[in-house]
Amino acid sequence: MKKEYEWKPSMSVGEKKIDSQHKKLLSQIIKLEKDIAARSINMGVLRDTNHFLYDYFKEHFSYEEKYMEKSGYPKLAQHRKVHESFIRFYDDFQRKLMEKTKSGNLASLDVKDMVKEVRDYLGKWLVNHIMGMDQDYARYVKMKG
User: CA triplet 67, 72, 78: central angle to 5 degrees?
Assistant: First the structure.
């Protein structure tokens, strides 16, 4: 399991709900990592992960953007574009995955490679996003008081 996907106190943005949402996503990525390592990827795991991510996008991005809007964060439009880019990546992954798994067979090596790719993308994107852009708005909110 990659330690880079584990929650660290330095990732906190100082807002309990946002921190909790970030922890949940990291936890989901770690679960996916374990499933890949155990070779236990199946349709149930993918459905659970996809359902979680769909709910996560809806809830987290909306909440975070409203939080930034309420605090008057001047880089909200830029932050929103990054969220939209993330959603486009996920939508593209979802479309490709559904095309490849229409038969319900996940034994295909390319499907497992796709799942690994999305896991890596999610983990790296999230850690970099939290430690970069999210920390920027956290500093702004803290400075503003």
Answer: 80
